[in-house]
Amino acid sequence: MNEYTIKPKESFPEKIGEFVWMLEHVREVTLQEVATLTQSELDFLPSDGANSIGSLLVHIASIEFVHQVISFENRDLTKGEHSKWGTALELGDRARDEIVHHPLDYYLKHLAQVREKKRTLLKLKNDQWLYEENQWGNGIAYNHYYLWFHVMEDEINHRGQIRSIKRLLGK
């Protein structure tokens, strides 16, 4: 039986554990949405200028990776990291050309690898870490809680796009 109560995940501090529960719930729902999609459905472009479901999945992984680098290493992407993740981060024409012809497992692997690293790193933090503030180059303050909230909201937003594309596919 499903249970819809937010509780801290074991082996995490309380607040971080609650947030991990939320991030994992969001991911479970995303994975359910794409579980039966074929390669051609993952590559489908509903219109000119749109993103495919496959590119949205790699984008979700890329956002999580970038936020790991910012929050755990207090830095921006290296040139090599940007080379690997930049197309998925930015989406657009390059993503439409380059993020195609992959089976579902390709996308699931990206999502799982990034998520596992985040779980490992979060186990090393305490709840106070969530509230530690930093500043962007433009002077705007942020904290780790916001960074991880943004990861969650970004995935939920793109899952809505995935659902819209699936409706166009008749699924």
Topology of this structure?
Elements: H1 14-34, H2 39-43, H3 53-73, H4 79-90, H5 93-98, H6 104-122, H7 127-131, E1 133-135, E2 141-143, H8 144-168
Antiparallel strand pairs: 1-2
Strand-residue proportion: under 5%
Tell me the number of helical segments per DSSP (H or I, 4 or more residues long): 8
Largest sheet: 2 strands, antiparallel
The amount of helix comes to: 55-70%
Instruction: Tell me what the CATH architecture is.
Output: Up-down Bundle
Q: List the uncertain runs.
A: none
Shape: globular
Reading the helices and strands in chain order gives HHHHHHHEEH
The counted number of beta strands is 2
Average pLDDT for all residues:
93
The spatial strand order of the largest sheet comes to 1-2
Number of domains: 1
| Name of the CATH superfamily | dinb family like domain
CATH topology: Four Helix Bundle (Hemerythrin (Met), subunit A)
